[in-house]
């Protein structure tokens, strides 16, 4: 064979080898024929074919997919050639897909292929919200974007046969449909991850406008508030306790609790978060205690909390009552005034009511010094009367007798 021909063939071989080489050592080719299709009202299928020019037995591949609803981004990898997802279409969705080397020499990721579905252009309803409040029941509410009265809500969950079920019980506000009460085994508490899909459309009108939503039970927990119990304990403590929220299997350890209380003395709430729903708080019987409790979903349960329970009262307020304070001040004041008045009048009346008891010492002195006794100008009526009495007891007759004897001596 001609040497030049040999060299040419060799060079051609080398060139062909070299030409195919960049694929194997550079960037992987992206997947082909990427399509996004709606499998039903809520679920999409992203499908593609493997890239060309790759020897699959020498180059192992996988596909990296992102699913974005605005800021929320989910990441997935697949080795087969399709990806399925049931969506919340409120905000639309964007997918990116790229080829990644699993075991493929020095190859790097391919560029991204992007596919998306846009959100509805017009909104039939706003503020679509659901609360999962008891096992088997969920209420969803919304505010209509206009005065449309012919809104229809349909719902669906995975494993439910199509077609969608219409809402069985609408909730109304002022004649407009503003909510739907859902009930069924699919909302069973043992399956908190249940995803429920909603479609709202109009029964009349030219537009085929639809709004679609997805809600997960575990993200919308809102049980009824727990029932609160209060009991006075020895040692001046008040025991607070509660029963788990009704409507859910009490054996499921789903709840954390927050208790708060305030007294008639201090109107600021004091919060306590016990592990179990029981707590001891120092109790002062002078004040009334007002207590509330709420249940909060644990991680295993999801997110959400009950409202605060109604205020439960314990004890009677004795201190903050204004009349109590008033009485507290008024009683001593009144007593003091009464005592002063009493003493004042007593001094005045003593003279009339209680005559002065005669002083025996004084009487004795008067008996001795009877001659010197004379009616004292300064003495009062009482004293002079006593004095007159004394005269009765001390007669001066003997002296008169002596005088008579003196007269008898005359010649
Ligand atoms: C792929 O590579 C394997 C192993 O190197 C080889 O046996 C096979 O022939 C190649 N197939 C193609 C289509 O190139
Ligand atoms: C999808 O991508 C487009 C273009 O980048 C962007 O305008 C839109 O907001 C994205 N949508 C979502 C739901 O992320
Ligand atoms: C949910 O709706 C039903 C039906 O109107 C109603 O009886 C129930 O009280 C509602 N639940 C809550 C938590 O609002
Ligand atoms: C929940 O589902 C389980 C199994 O399907 C069933 O045994 C249980 O009775 C259901 N509970 C309620 C509250 O529906
Ligand atoms: C809970 O949901 C999962 C996924 O939706 C399902 O596979 C499972 O059978 C459900 N369990 C019960 C008890 O319903
Ligand atoms: C509204 O949606 C339901 C469920 O997909 C469908 O059966 C019904 O025909 C729709 N109504 C209109 C007016 O499009």
UniProtKB/TrEMBL annotation:
Annotated localization: Membrane
Membrane topology: Single-pass type I membrane protein
Record field: transmembrane: 322-346
Tagged with keyword Disulfide bond: yes
GO molecular function, one term: cytokine receptor activity
Listed GO CC annotations: external side of plasma membrane
Name used for this protein in its record: Fibronectin type-III domain-containing protein
